[in-house]
Amino acid sequence: MNKEERNCQNCHQEFVIEPEDFDFYTKIDVPPPTFCPECREIRRIAFRNERALYRRKCDLCGETVVSRVSPDKPYPMYCKECWWSDRWDPLSYAAEYDFSRPFFEQFSGLLNKVPHISIFNSNTVNSDWVNQETDDKNCYLNVGGHYNEDSAYNTYELYGKNSLDNFWFLNSEFGYENISCKRCYRVVGSRDCFDCQDTYFSHDCRNCSNVFGCAGLRNKKYCVFNEQRTKEEYEIFMRENPICSRISYDVQEKKAHEVWRTVPRRFAAINKSVEVSGDNIDESKNAHHCFAAEKVENAKYVYIGGWIRDSYDLTSHGAAELVYECSSGGGEYDAKFVTYCMSGDPLRQMHSSHLTYCFGLITSDYCFGCVGLRNKKYCILNKQYTKEEYEALVPKIIAHMNEMPYAGKNGRTYRYGEFFPIELSPFAYNETIANGLFPLSREEAEERGYRFAEEEEKAHAVTKRSSELPDHIKDAGDDMLRETIGCATCGRGYRIIPMELAFLRKMNLPLPRECPFCRVRAQFSRWGKNLRMIPRICDRCGEEFTTHYSEEDTPLVICKECYRKEVV
Prior knowledge:
Strand content: 25-35%
Oligomer: single chain
Largest sheet: 7 strands, mixed
Strand order of the largest sheet: 21-22-23-24-25-26-27
Number of helices: 12
Helix content: 10-25%
Radius of gyration: 25 Å
Shape: globular
C-alpha cells in the first residue's frame, strides 16, 4: 500500500501511515490507528502512575501501606502480600460477555471491581516508598529502576549507589542532578556523560575526570569551560568557585550551559545501530521513532524498551515480540493493548502470549479483556472457558466491538484496534507520567475529557521559606531535618531527609530550594524534549536529518560523520 495521511481523532492533526506500517498491522491483524503517534503515547502513559503515592489501608488485611492507589479511588486495593496470596481469587469477579453493551463499558466495570496491587516493587530492603523498582536497598522515592542502594528521588536509575535527583542514571555512584549519564562517579549537574569522574555541569563528555562546565570532551583532565588547565590551576578554580554555595552553584551552572551552546552536538545518541531514528538507541536495527531503546529490531514508536522485535507502540517495555500498543510490562509474545502484564517467573523471558485488552496479568496466555489473573488460560472478562469456547467467542467480541463502538469523551470513538480509552485509566491525568512529559493545566486536561486529581492536603504547615535556607551547606545543621520548607516554585511544603542531608554534606552541595516533585517535573520537561523529531540540516556539511534538538535550545547540530571528525 502507499503511505496515507490520516486525521487524528484526538488532536485533529494530520499524521502519516507508511507502507511498512500497513504491512505490520496486516501481519498482526489489527486495523490502522485513528490516533496519531503522540496521542497514542499519551494514552498509554496515562495509565502509568509513578510518583503519586499515598498511605492507604489494604482492603483485605486492613494494614496501612504505601500505595499508588489513593483512598478515594472507586476500586479495592490490596497490599503486596495480600495481592500475591491465595486469599482471593481473580476468577471470582468473572462476568458473562454482554452483547447489548460496548466492550469497554464492560471492561471498565471489571477494572473497578478487581483489587489492584498497592505498589509495584519487589525484593526491596528499607525501601517502602519506591515504585516500579526491584532489588533496592535503603532507597526513597526512586521510580522505574532496579538494583539501587542508598539513593533517593531518582527516575530510571539502574545499578546505582549513593545518588540523588538523577534521571536515566546507569551503573553510577555519587551522582546529583544528572540526566542520561552512564558509568560515572562523582558527577553533578551533567548530561549525556559516560565513563566520567569528578565531573561538574558538563555535557557529552567521555572518559573525562576533573572537568567543570565542559562539552564534547574526550579523554581529558583538568578542564574548565572547555579550556585546558594545569592540575594546580584547576584546584585553584574549584576553591574560588565552590558549588557548596547555592548562589555559586546556580551561577556556575548557567555559565556552563552557555558553553554547551557553543559546542556542536551530534544530531542523536545512536550507538552500534543501523537504519534507526530517535535518540538514546543502542544495538538496534530497523527501529524508528525510538527513544531510550536497546536491542530493538523491526520496531517503531518505542519509548524506554529493550529486547524487542517486530513490535509497534510500546512504552516501558522489555522482551516483546509481535506486540502492539502495550505499556509497563514485558515478556509477551503476540500481545495487543495490554498494560502491567508481566512475569511471576523472571527466568522465563517470554512468559505470556496471545493477550488482548488485559490489565495486570501475570504469566498467562490466551486471555481477552481480563484483569489481575495469574497463570491462567482461555479467559474472557475473568471467566474461564475451554479452548474451543474461547476461540469461538473472541471473533464475535471483536465483531461486536466494531458494530457497537464505545463512545468516549470529546467525541472519541473506540472500536477494536484502539488502546483503552484514557478515561478508563485508574489514575487522574496529573497522577501519571503523561503529565510529566506532556503537562496540562487542570482546565486543559478537563477540556480534553481527562480527570484531574486534587492536591492531597498536607498535615505539616510550612515552617521555613526556601529563601531563608542557608546559602552554604556548612551552615545547614541537623535542625534542617525538622523544618518543613516552602518550595520556591509551587509553595508546597517538603522536608530534607537524613539520607539527603548526609549526601549533600559529603558531596559539598547546597540544599535544594524546590520540592522533589518540582525537581522531577523539571527533569521530565528537559527529557520530554527528547521525544520530538525536528527536521534540520547539519551545520557543517548540510546533510538533512531529524533530531530532537531545536534551533532555540541547540544552535549547532551536526551529522554523524561531521561529529566524528570534529568532536571524536
